[in-house]
Amino acid sequence: MKKIIVVIACFYSVLSFSQMTMKKLDGTPILNGDVFTFSTLGDPETASSSDPAYLGLKIYNSSANAINVKMRLISMTNADGNNVQFCIDPICIGSITVGNAYPASGNSVVPANGQNGNFDHFINNNPGTNGNGTVEYVLKFYMVDNFGGEFGNSITITYRYAALGLASNALETAGINVTSTLVKSQFEFDATSNGTAELYDINGKMVTSVNYISGYNTVDVSNLNAAVYILNFTNQEGKKAALKIIKK
Fold this sequence. Notes:
Layout: H1 2-16, E1 20-23, E2 29-30, E3 35-38, E4 55-56, E5 58-61, E6 67-77, E7 84-88, E8 91-93, E9 101-102, E10 108-110, E11 121-124, E12 134-144, E13 150-162, H2 170-173, E14 176-178, E15 182-183, E16 186-191, E17 195-201, E18 206-212, E19 215-220, E20 227-235, E21 240-247
Parallel strand pairs: 3-13, 15-21
Antiparallel strand pairs: 1-2, 1-5, 4-11, 6-9, 6-10, 6-12, 7-8, 7-11, 12-13, 14-16, 16-19, 17-18, 17-20, 20-21
């Protein structure tokens, strides 16, 4: 029994030192909370890195043991999960569902002190359920142990399609600048004028409202449960913009 306990303890000790990092194909680091915005639709049928809507994903493993990786679709906005292509070695699919993890069977294995190659990517060809505006997919990449349990660090990113000249400029028009939509205790943003920000849960209930000023602002979310929220901005000129944030 003692030997078994020691083996299990060593196993989890090894896992605790496993570290996953991600980069784009050009070597740019992909950080937790990053938002990648594309103004064109991609072509999943002939997906390639030359497609302007193509987001290549390289997963790196800095540990001395192979790691198992999955991606879970946390949420999507203005989309039904079709007309996409998501590939994570060894699978490639054209439809995704909120809450599901991929690969659905098995894992994507990243070798010790190695990376997954140039296979993994995400591309969107959905113009939105109303045919116009912004489409968003929130993707969480995380490690799992041999029993399927999540461990270690994870990286959550947002893939955003914003029709040129429409939703992509909504925040800019309202004078709002955001660096990250993934938050822990407070949401930070810059504004070019005064206004009001209202935070709603996914059921449409307003959970907080703040008056912001021109310059640097924060919204306290430390007392909220981990979930997806919608933040609506209205500046003093009446210009509006909406943004989805994820509370960790």
